[in-house]
Design a protein that fits this description.
The structure holds two protein chains of two kinds.
Chain A (H helix, E strand, L loop, with lengths): L1 E5 L2 H4 L7 E5 L3 H11 L3 H5 L10 E5 L2 E3 L13 E6 L5
Parallel strand pairs in A: 1-5
Antiparallel strand pairs in A: 1-2, 3-4, 3-5
Chain B lengths: L6 E6 L4 E6 L2 H7 L2 H12 L13 E5 L13 E6 L6 E6 L3 H7 L4 E5 L6 E6 L2 E6 L8 H12 L4 E4 L2 H4 L7 E3 L2 E3 L4 H7 L2 E6 L10 H15 L3 H9 L4 H8 L20 H5 L2 E5 L9 E5 L9 E3 L3 H6 L9 H14 L3 H16 L18 H13 L3 H5 L3 H8 L9 E2 L2 E2 L9 H9 L12 H5 L11 H17 L5 H4 L3 H12 L7 H21 L11 H5 L16 H12 L9 H6 L6 H4 L5
Parallel strand pairs in B: 1-6, 7-12
Antiparallel strand pairs in B: 1-2, 3-4, 3-6, 4-5, 7-8, 9-12, 10-11, 13-14, 14-15, 16-17
Helix pairs in contact in B: 1-2, 2-19, 2-22, 7-21, 12-14, 17-19, 19-22, 19-24
The chains are: A alpha+beta, B alpha+beta.
Chain lengths: 90, 613
């Protein structure tokens, strides 16, 4: 199942400038595993040591925000996962 | 009917008299409120050369036109003065509820001038304005002071006060209301010099609005839309603590006084770790997000410590900046700073400066009252905070801020003072977000992250590491922030609140001023405020030479910072040129006559023209 995955520019610093890629997987987590396989080290930026997505990032599946982000959310062929970052603070 | 009361209290502490004055309606339309009207008064009433801690300085507390309404996150209060840290214009925006109740009492602001012979506080209620003796309050911490005033005037009394640090003129002392803080630039010291302990108000709403029904309808729509916003929920659940781990991964989170960008075991002070000891949310008047995270320590060295926070900045300043990953100590230190009434950003930055001087042997135990200052040592941090708050021993020097402390220490200490114009940098590494470097350099109040934010760089829409084509963005960001600070709109609301169009509609419905219907008119006000602040500084000799960054950022490659490793700020001059050009300033950083006239600041031209020759 091919899923379209779009990275925010801050993650493109770890993907050699690649913004959009096709990955396969049955869940968001599996898609991120393939992202890691293509760009080793990128998962370390996205996830904490327990494997949970850092809260500085948000995941949208077909324009629906997943909150809190459940990485075992199922995906289907043709879906689009968009990762955004919330980097602002006071 | 209008949400403006249209009047303020002028309190002269030298004479002990107060009077109520009308605020010119033209100033409301030209400067909105808050920081805008505050700066308008400051420019008008302070001559160049005024010593910040002298009776000639003034402190202006000013609300915005939407304050005390049901709109989201707009009841904050602006504090404007001349800073004892920088000698430049100062602004800080304070949350809480005090300002809303000041408006309910019938006043949009307070101008404090002169100097009292003895400690006093101001009490405002339905019977009038009373200047009262504060002998019993002098020396109390901010929480004790608020408690005493509530015991005296009633449980619902809203209080804003200084702590012992303000009384002792620590140059980065703050004003506190509940556990909300205002005064990164040392407004607490200015109030302390005037011997005013604080302000108390008893009042009740609601406020009159030009179109109350329309206002209510729109605010409800906005709130409905926000209920499911992931960004807002993040803020509610974690406050700004959710930024720490993400920033550390990409090199934005400065460590060991900006020596590097990696903190081992940063998770120990990350959002999850801090959430594990959260007890409840707290927030400002009229805000559904309530981003304040009340946390409590159970057991261990800091058993029982409670604070509303720490927020990202304090997690950085007293945590990462000192390589301190003891979360319990962060709660205790945050609480201590709030009680003493000192700014956690400048305090943590200054302590980091001291730790680095100790690391390099520039100072020793002989200088530090016997303390060993080693990275990660929370106990030493706590001891230094106590010393700073009481201005005892080594704390007396650190209470001067890094710029003055470095000048007194000598021996090259200046190279490790991470400040601009005398204000210590906050927790954003300029070498990893070059737009922030430009903000810190150009900010009229010194290095402050809330003076303008390079949103496109932080969100990743624009390359954060390049050093061209950023001057215009930052000029817009700073102008936009000035508008927000005049409204006064919480800095989080553009992302998790209302947009510029909705803001204009709210302003018209609140005030009845048709001019505000045009978002471009409202945005232009920010540029006017920014320009007037610059003119205030220009009169005191500030120009391009002061728009710079610490030597470290300009010469030392950033270490251990992920994709930002090796970065330095190489092209600050080019960025400054872009910024000045975008704002219509000369290449010396001084507003041109044409720009002053375009902004309706013709009356300033005569003051500034001599600096443009």
């Amino acid at each position: 199942m091919s899923v379209r995955l779009k990275l925010p520019p801050i993650l493109q610093e770890f993907s050699g400038g690649v913004e959009t890629l096709e990955v396969s997987g049955r869940t968001v987590a599996e898609c991120l595993e393939e992202l890691e396989a293509q760009f080793p080290g990128i998962k370390e930026v996205l996830l904490d040591r327990q494997g949970k997505l850092l809260r500085a990032f948000g995941v949208y599946l077909n324009n629906d925000g997943l909150h809190p982000v459940e990485l075992d959310t199922p995906v289907q062929g043709g879906d689009e996962i968009v990762i955004l970052n919330f980097l602002m603070g006071g | 009917m209008s949400s403006y009361n249209g009047r303020l209290i002028r309190l002269n502490l030298t004479t002990g008299k107060s009077q109520v004055e009308e605020i010119p309606q033209k100033w409301m339309k030209d400067y909105l409120g808050g920081r805008g009207i505050g700066v308008r008064y400051l420019y008008e009433e302070l001559k160049p050369g005024v010593e910040p801690l002298s009776p000639d300085n003034k402190v202006i507390l000013m609300m915005g036109p939407l304050g005390a309404t049901t709109a989201m996150s707009v009841s904050r209060m602006a504090l404007v003065t001349k800073s004892p840290l920088t000698g430049a214009v100062a602004k800080s925006i304070m949350g809480g509820s005090f300002g809303a109740f000041l408006k309910f009492a019938g006043y949009d602001g307070i101008i404090v001038e002169g100097e009292s012979a003895k400690p006093v506080y101001l009490h405002i209620d339905k019977d009038g304005i009373h200047l009262l003796d504060a002998a019993e309050l002098w020396g109390l911490d901010t929480q004790q002071t608020q408690q005493k005033l509530r015991e005296k005037h009633g449980k619902s009394t809203q209080v804003a006060c200084i702590g012992p640090a303000g009384e002792k003129l620590v140059r980065y002392a703050v004003l506190i209301s509940d556990l909300r803080v205002g005064g990164r630039t040392g407004v607490g010291a200015v109030l302390g010099a005037k011997k005013i302990k604080g302000f108390a108000v008893n009042s009740s709403g609601p406020l009159s609005l030009h179109d109350a029904d329309g206002f209510k309808k729109l605010t409800r729509e906005i709130i409905e839309g926000l209920k499911t916003s992931p960004g807002r929920i993040n803020m509610s659940d974690f406050g700004t603590s959710y930024l720490t781990l993400g920033f550390e991964k990409v090199g934005i989170f400065p460590v060991k006084n900006f020596q590097e960008g990696h903190l081992e075991d940063v998770e120990k002070i990350g959002d999850e770790a801090l959430a594990s000891i959260k007890t409840k949310n707290d927030g400002c008047y009229g805000c559904m997000t309530k981003c304040g995270q009340v946390r409590q320590v159970t057991g261990g060295t800091y058993d029982g410590a409670v604070s509303e926070g720490p927020d990202y900045e304090t997690i950085w300043s007293l945590g990462g900046n000192l390589a301190n990953t003891d979360k319990d100590s962060l709660i205790a230190a945050d609480s201590l700073c709030d009680r003493l009434g000192i700014d956690t950003v400048s305090a943590g930055n200054t302590i980091g400066f001291a730790y680095e001087l100790y690391q390099r042997g520039i100072i020793t135990k002989k200088d530090t009252d016997g303390l060993e200052l080693n990275w990660g040592d929370a106990a030493a941090m706590m001891a230094l905070l106590e010393k700073i708050g009481s201005r005892e021993g080594f704390g007396k020097l650190l209470g001067e801020g890094t710029k003055r402390a470095a000048e007194q220490i000598g021996k090259g200490a200046e190279d490790y003072a991470i400040q601009v114009k005398g204000l210590e940098l906050p927790g954003y590494e300029p070498r990893a977000v070059k737009g922030y470097g430009l903000v810190f350099a150009t900010s009229n109040i010194g290095a402050q992250h809330m003076y303008g934010r390079p949103r496109d760089e932080l969100s990743g829409k624009k390359d954060r590491l390049t050093e061209v084509d950023k001057g215009k963005d930052i000029a817009v960001a700073e102008s936009s922030q000035a508008t927000q600070d005049a409204v006064i709109q919480c800095s989080f609301t553009p992302a998790v609140g209302f947009n510029a169009q909705q803001r204009s509609e709210l302003l018209v419905m609140a005030t009845g001023f048709k001019e505000f219907a045009d978002p471009a008119y409202v945005e232009k006000i920010g540029e006017r405020i920014l320009c007037l602040e610059r003119c205030f500084n220009v009169r005191d000799g500030f120009d391009r030479k002061d728009d710079t960054l610490p030597k470290r950022m300009l010469t030392e490659p950033l270490a251990n910072a992920g994709p930002a490793t090796g970065q330095v700020v190489k092209n600050l001059d080019g960025l400054l040129d872009e910024y000045y050009d975008a704002l219509g300033y000369t290449r010396q950083g001084i507003p041109s006559e044409a720009k002053l006239k375009e902004l309706g600041l013709d009356w300033v031209v005569a003051d500034i023209e001599k600096f443009n020759k």
